[in-house]
Design brief:
With 351 residues, the protein is of the alpha+beta class. It has two domains: 187 residues, no CATH class; 134 residues, no CATH class. Helices cover 12% and strands 29% of the residues. The protein contains five helices and 20 strands.
Length: 351
């Protein structure tokens, strides 16, 4: 009891600008065949691997995670090796730490009902996670790096246990722009349709190359407030917009690295001057998808969207939103003017 109390008090000291997992002895080069034991699995967490598996992302991602541990497998777009993690109970932790809790954009560790610790108590823990097919997957927090722009927002270096390869691996998909992606800890979970739900005791590790984290770095932090109102709906609308999820069903209609410009009606991100010869108005957005469309981002015929989600949109008279923004298709049940976000796309307009 006395030992645990001392450890907890020590962990409450201010954390450094970044932290790494506590050193663990390297496992022996040879290991028995079959399933790795619990002791060996935890001893091997957060250690760099000799080889990196190649990710092949298809289209724009929501979570930014791999669809399947088998990189040669053509997995569905709505699949992910990691969609959520439990804050308690912990699978493995620093002595004295009983659970984690999420405070805004960062995690803190708890040694008791009312005790909290800083970043240093978080690194080295192993959480119980879940994949999109409901299978359990363990997640290790290997490092914590506060954002230079907002120290209250922390990027975590995570690894998940790949039961197929029997190795700890970064579940985040690496891309050229972010070859070693980290993750943000975000409250709640997103399902395959792209819908967000608050789930007590659960969080999402959203990787840097996914829409959830991109929208946060663009200025829509779901835990923040503007004029007393939470930004959660703005963030959710942004995740739909980032993936061109017009129907609000989790299906993207874009290509990787397509350049877009976004702005909202609250002044958090304002629309700048734009050249109609280079960019064109695309759509207005609500948390459950587009409220009206002027064109598709990937150039497919508008008819394909109408067929994908029948009875959702209606055609007819054009909807003038002002400032040169004009929709040709609109939601039947939502006013286009009530949208939270709008965007332009820097790509060849649909002909």
């Amino acid at each position: 009891m006395k030992k645990s109390l001392l450890v907890c008090l020590f962990l409450q000291l201010p954390a450094a600008a970044w932290a790494t997992a506590p050193a663990a002895p390297k496992p022996a080069a040879s290991r028995p065949s079959g399933v790795v034991s619990d002791a060996e699995r935890y001893a091997r967490r957060c250690q760099s691997q000799s080889a990196h598996r190649i990710g092949r992302p298809q289209g724009t991602m929501l979570w930014g995670t791999r669809r399947d541990w088998n990189t040669e497998k053509l997995a569905p777009e709505r699949s992910s090796v990691l969609v959520s993690a439990d804050l308690a109970p912990l699978r493995q932790a620093v002595d004295g730490v009983k659970a984690l809790r999420l405070e805004g954009g960062h995690l803190v560790a708890a040694c008791g009902p009312d005790a909290g610790v800083a970043t240093g108590g978080v690194v080295g823990t192993v959480l119980q996670g879940t994949s999109s097919d409901g299978k359990p997957v363990e997640v290790a927090i290997c490092g914590a790096e506060p954002s230079p722009e907002d120290p209250g927002m922390v990027f975590y270096r995570i690894e998940a246990w790949n039961a197929v390869a029997q190795e700890w691996e970064n579940p985040c998909v690496a891309l050229d722009r972010v070859p070693d992606p980290r993750a943000l800890a975000v409250s709640g979970v997103w399902d395959g349709s792209g819908a967000h739900q608050e789930a007590p005791g659960k969080l999402t590790f959203a990787c840097e190359n996914g829409a959830i984290t991109k929208c946060i770095t663009w200025g829509y932090k779901p835990w923040a407030r503007r004029d007393g109102k939470p930004l959660a709906d703005l963030h959710q609308a942004c995740t739909r917009m980032a993936r061109a999820d017009y129907c609000g069903n989790g299906q993207n209609h874009t290509h990787q690295n397509t350049v877009i410009d976004l702005y909202d009606r609250f002044g958090l991100v304002e629309r700048g001057e734009w050249d109609p010869a280079k960019a064109s108005f695309e759509a207005a957005w609500a948390p459950d998808g587009a409220t009206c469309l002027a064109r598709t981002r990937d150039g497919r015929a508008m008819e394909t969207i109408l067929q994908e989600c029948p009875n959702r949109f209606q055609t007819g008279a054009a909807v003038e939103l002002g400032a040169g923004e004009r929709c040709t298709v609109r939601r039947a049940d939502v006013s286009p003017e009530a949208a939270l976000l709008r965007n332009l796309t820097y790509a060849a307009p649909n002909r």
